[in-house]
Amino acid sequence: MSLPNVITGARILFVPAFVVVYMMPGSWSHPIAALIFSLAAATDWLDGYVARRFNQVTAFGAFLDPVADKIIVVSALLILVAAHSSIWLTLPSLIIVGRELVVSALREWMAEMDQSITVAVSYLGKIKTTVQMIAIAILMYLPSDAEGAWIVIGYATLYVAAVMTIWSMSVYLRAAWPTLRNSDPR
Predict the structure, then answer these.
(1) pLDDT of 86-115, one tens digit each?
(2) Top-level CATH class of 3-182?
(3) What 3-state class would DSSP assign to 184?
(4) pTM tops 0.70, yes or no
(5) Cβ contact 161:131 at 8 Å
(6) DSSP H/E element including 12
(7) Hey, how many other C-beta atoms are within 10 angstroms of the C-beta on 120?
(8) CB of 47 within 8 A of CB of 7?
(9) Pair 107, 119: CB distance under 8 Å
């Protein structure tokens, strides 16, 4: 296990921590959960930096990193949707989770076709993930009944992330389309 893979594994271990803390009663639980979530999100940058800086990029790390991102984002969106019980949070959350499923399946299928480079993580995908993490951290920090500018900023940022999600998915699908169109159905 290289250091970047250990960092990525630790990021996954942050998930039960922020979920449990978020669901605890008390005015302190949401800000602490948002802090834990933010630390997990920051390790996404850190593991990639360490892997590139010290030439510790591995196939296992390339697999585990996006899996960790998906676990963190989906877990956070699930607890937020449950807490907010709002269609306005549920809709972009469904778009984001749906995209993650589609792109994950597409990557798996393209790997089977020996075309995984066609759907490699793009710069747009990295920006999308960053915007998602910011939106989630804001929404996690605030109580579910919050009003005012910050809740609007949190929701608006989540909608920007949802639009970027659709955009990045379309980029992946367009890149994979020739292989999808010309593949043997067996």
Answers:
(1) 999 999 999 999 998 998 888 788 777 777
(2) mainly alpha
(3) coil
(4) yes
(5) yes
(6) helix 3-23
(7) 12
(8) yes
(9) yes
